[in-house]
Design a protein that fits this description.
It contains no helices and 4 strands. The protein is mainly β. The chain has a 4-stranded antiparallel beta sheet with strand order 1-2-3-4, with no helix packed on it. Strand 3 and strand 4 form a beta hairpin. It is elongated and about 75 Å long. It starts with 21 loop residues before the first strand and ends in a 9-residue tail after the last strand.
C-alpha cells in the first residue's frame, strides 16, 4: 500500500506595505510638514501643511481592503 499524497499548503498572502503619512510640502518645500489622514468611513483623504496652512482633500477610490 502506498502513502497518501500530502496536500500542498497555499502560499502566504502578501501584506501591503504601510504608506507614508508625512511628506514635504510642494508649496513651501518644508520637509516633513504635510500630514495625511484617510477617513475610510466617509472615503475622504486629506493632506495639510502645518507651515503654510495649504490643504487638499479628495475622495478615495480603488482601495482594496485586505485583512491585516
Amino acid at each position: 500500500m502506498g502513502k497518501r499524497k500530502s496536500k500542498a499548503k497555499p502560499p502566504p498572502k502578501k501584506r501591503m506595505d504601510k504608506l507614508d503619512t508625512v511628506f514635504s510640502c510642494p508649496f513651501c518645500n518644508h520637509g516633513t510638514s504635510v500630514e495625511c489622514r484617510i477617513d475610510m468611513k466617509n472615503m475622504i483623504g486629506e493632506a495639510s501643511c502645518g507651515i503654510c496652512q495649504e490643504s487638499l482633500s479628495t475622495t478615495i477610490t480603488g482601495i482594496c481592503q485586505s485583512p491585516v
